[in-house]
């Protein structure tokens, strides 16, 4: 129960991203600054966290050995993930962006065969069927949204989020394959933030030439997002998963808590931004998205359990053969 509670608290901090990004958009702040300033603020914070345990040097050494992979996958995993996500807030409320971004679960499943070809993994068909529930939920939410805005707005909201949904698992999983457990979570976050800086600097230069400089309000809000989602939420979520990593049922429960981002983003916008209450149809869509995420976590848990039991069985047979010899 404690791990579930921590997971829900992490979801609250993650939802701050969607609420404040929408807030900055409504105040007239450019999405460019909402995106780039977050990672610029994250950089010194992560340096302090990783440097506190004197773990910065291994990050720098690994980056020097593999500069191109670090640059490419960090730019995809952070830049192509967060810039489109922030851009989408121009054309839709935060709760809709949060709900549509859950397509990343489906994207992650579709990318499985292409992430590590040496393992010859197949697309998890069962997960894809469950993901259809999430797709149905997103479709219903966007359909309701389309009834009140031009079709162009819907496309400019959905298409960037599809890019974001694929970029996030692609970049992060490729980096985990590259690292192969050599760096911990915060070391990886620091390295990816450093390696994605060229992208954010170029985006900022574009922002300087095409938009006004960020207001003091936008600077403060992006700092809050950096601390809330980039540091606190990440630390809480990984702490929660580590607490129950040996219990698949509880681990599935912790993973499913992240579906709460949609709900928390909605209530945050209602309270903080005085946003209008979504229609009943939109609530049905949200319900389907959350249901799909919970089912996906359960199936993933059962799959991991089967693999573990099979591994233990094979190990037991091998051990028996050795003893028999």
UniProtKB/TrEMBL annotation:
The protein's name in its UniProt record: Multidrug resistance efflux transporter family protein
Keywords: Membrane, Transmembrane, Transmembrane helix
InterPro entries documented for this protein: EmrE
Record organism: Virgibacillus tibetensis
Transmembrane annotation, as ranges: 31-50, 70-90, 96-115, 127-145, 151-168, 189-208, 220-239, 260-277, 283-303
Source taxonomy: Bacteria, Bacillati, Bacillota, Bacilli, Bacillales
Keyword hit for Transmembrane: yes
Superkingdom, natural source: Bacteria
Pfam families: EmrE
